[in-house]
TrEMBL record:
Residues 12-94 form the Shikimate dehydrogenase substrate binding N-terminal domain. GO terms for biological process: amino acid biosynthetic process; aromatic amino acid family biosynthetic process; chorismate biosynthetic process; shikimate metabolic process. Transmembrane segments: none annotated. It catalyses: shikimate + NADP(+) = 3-dehydroshikimate + NADPH + H(+). Residues 131-198 form the Quinate/shikimate 5-dehydrogenase/glutamyl-tRNA reductase domain. The gene is aroE. This is Shikimate dehydrogenase (NADP(+)). One of its GO terms (molecular function) is NADP binding. It comes from Paragemmobacter kunshanensis. It is an enzyme of class 1 (oxidoreductase). Involved in the biosynthesis of the chorismate, which leads to the biosynthesis of aromatic amino acids. Catalyzes the reversible NADPH linked reduction of 3-dehydroshikimate (DHSA) to yield shikimate (SA).
Length: 279
């Protein structure tokens, strides 16, 4: 019998998935490190999710990234779930283990923090409260990560208040739910200000917030990365704040998966950013 080494395959699973930058990012890293492997987009309907995930390891897949709308559903399929994925209630990274088990993790929060540490090394999470706008799936990862790194208080507002209240009951007393109209007071004295809504994305209205009380010492960041610099970040920068765009979060959340699947810790540097931006 000939023992052919298998070429590792990885997919990003979602629907739609054609817009995902992940294939360009992982494809760049595979070329850069000379690794024989493939990373492909896979558009899967909800009804096919479980059967596809069970079959993929037998087809040579070593793992997957998961995006909208499957991030929550994969937790019902995975055999092993990391604490942070369980806390967030969603997974973005799957590992198909040699023992046949599907392991689920969420690296969005770690990617969010790594991006801030890389681009604003002076940022001190404990320096003051954070003001977080939006309470969707990404907000859950951001809030878990902010609490983990020692932010003392999180002021949270969402268009649909019930979603923010749900985060308060899941994450506890550090979360102070506010009405959107209180944005001015939320930003006043905040050391960290985060847009986790989809406002500001190309094709959507801008996020418009009263920034009169924004401290020039504050760090302002946006999860949106198309455009790279949102109107919200432009206005915050004009007021003297340090701003960090959302592209680095996408790059950093991808690194742990790449390392697990392909055995190489990838660099997240200017060349990586340029490769993804030019794809
Ligand atoms: P999601 O679960 O659909 O949540 C969307 C959020 O945006 C909710 O808080 C929603 O409020 C709010 N929103 C949408 N339209 C709004 C409007 N017109 N006015 C006020 N609020 C509005 O999406 P998600 O997964 O959290 O993603 C949110 C954003 O983060 C997206 O732009 C996504 O691309 C980006 N993201 C970036 C990264 C990265 O690596 N940089 C990672 C994950 C996500 P309601 O609850 O009231 O609907």
């Amino acid at each position: 019998m000939t023992d052919h080494p298998r070429i590792p395959l990885v997919a990003v699973i979602g629907s739609p998935v054609a817009h995902s930058r992940s294939p360009a990012l992982h494809g760049y890293w595979l070329r850069r490190y000379g690794i024989k492997g493939f990373y492909i987009p896979m558009d899967l309907a909800q009804a096919d999710l479980e059967s596809a995930l069970r079959m993929m390891p037998r087809m040579g897949f070593v793992g997957a990234n998961v995006t909208i709308p499957h991030k929550e559903a994969v937790l019902n399929i995975a055999d092993v779930i990391s604490d942070r994925a369980a806390l967030i209630g969603a997974a973005n990274t799957l590992i198909f283990r040699k023992d046949g088990k599907i392991q689920a993790d969420n690296t969005d929060g770690a990617g969010f923090i790594a991006n801030l540490r890389q681009h604003a090394p002076h940022w001190l999470p404990s320096a003051g409260p954070a003001a977080v706008f939006g309470a969707g799936g990404a907000a859950r990862a951001v809030i878990a990560a902010l609490i983990e790194v020692g932010v003392p208080e999180i002021r949270l507002a969402n268009r649909t208040r019930a979603r923010a209240d749900a985060l308060r009951s899941d994450f506890g007393a550090k979360i102070h739910v506010q009405e959107w109209v209180q944005a001015d007071a939320m930003i006043d004295g905040a050391a960290t200000v985060v847009n986790t809504t989809s406002l500001g994305m190309t094709g959507k209205p801008d996020l418009v917030l009263p920034l009169g009380s924004l401290s020039p010492q504050a760090l302002v960041t946006d999860l949106v990365y198309t455009p790279l610099k949102t109107q919200f970040l432009i206005e915050a920068e004009e007021r003297g704040a340090t701003v960090v765009d959302g592209l680095g979060m996408l790059l950093h959340q991808a690194a742990p998966g790449f390392e697990r699947w392909f055995g190489q810790r990838p660099d997240v540097d200017d060349a990586t950013r340029a490769a993804v931006l030019s794809a």
